[in-house]
What we know:
Blueprint: H1 19-31, E1 37-41, H2 49-64, E2 68-72, H3 76-82, E3 85-90, E4 93-99, H4 105-113
Amino acid sequence: MHRYRLNMDLDVKISELSVGQMQRVELFKALMREPELLIFDEATSTLTDTETEEFFDILRTLNAAACTIVLISHKLHELMAISHRITVLRNGKIASLYQTAEVSKEELATVMMGERRPLAALGVPYYRE
Length: 129
């Protein structure tokens, strides 16, 4: 538990924990299986800014240990802060792929809202609905 900085009082009842602390318990349960892949869907939606940063620190530690992380979020500032690559999905299909360092929040918002963009980097044609 300390390896991932999931410091918690183990004597506290689950019902007495904050939402962020409950999320840490669930994360710890998943980490006990030593996963190679973790998928998080809107994981920060109920977290405070401090809890979000702590969560991101854990994700960075996991990623450094060769765990692949998929983070599903609509919070562009968080995606820009934590990711290496961003895939925008629309209607269940890939709308675009980016290296995070090479894209702006504005470009992501444009693609997310529906403007068609080529996937030239992958040799994939324009997004089609």
